[in-house]
Amino acid sequence: MNLNKLRDKAYQCAVAHGWHEENLSDEHFLCLVISELMEAVEADRKGNHADTDAFNRYYNCVNFKENFERQIKGTVEEELADACIRLLDLAGLRGYDLDSFDYEGSDTEDYSDMTFTESMFRICVYITDNFYRNELSILLNEIFSFCKNRNIDIFWYIDQKMKYNELRSYKHGDKSY
């Protein structure tokens, strides 16, 4: 996976939709990453998981946006993809090279013995830690590691969510950030 291409795509979409008209801090963007992780927790509490079988079955039968909203929107998988997209966007904004990091050889948390909430808390700890928060590759890799442990094809969900985001209105209608 070429993460710099994903980074550029996420950043360009954010620019086109008005999300970089102000000069905002890294803390602002990282807070929004945490908010996506908390939305994933809420989705998990409600048992909202994507129905990829139905999504793929109806892919050529109905409008993409409608299909996405029925089968993926508001799910754990979508919110985790949103967290990644926000990190990719920040990497694009700040010019981070994401492809120079050794994702396969890196040391990540072992999420297998953690509950969903413990895992999301652990990732939030990385985000708020002064040492790690400027290491966007490490933050992304923690989400990737969690998803791999839970058999979530996060790159597929990122791709679908980015397609959906391209169809959304400027600033998603009425959001201020």
Write the SSE topology.
Blueprint: H1 3-16, H2 26-45, H3 52-57, H4 64-71, H5 76-94, H6 116-128, H7 136-149, H8 154-167
The total of helices stands at 8
The biggest sheet, with number of strands, parallel, antiparallel or mixed sense and barrel status, is:
none
Gap from first CA to last CA: 29 Å
Number of strands: 0
Low-confidence stretches: none
Outline type: globular
Helix content: 55-70%
Structural class: mainly alpha
Describe the protein.
With 177 residues, the protein is mainly alpha-helical. The protein is built from eight helices and no strands. α2 (26-45) runs antiparallel to α5 (76-94) and α2 (26-45) runs antiparallel to α6 (116-128). The mean pLDDT is 94.
Labels describing this entry:
mainly alpha
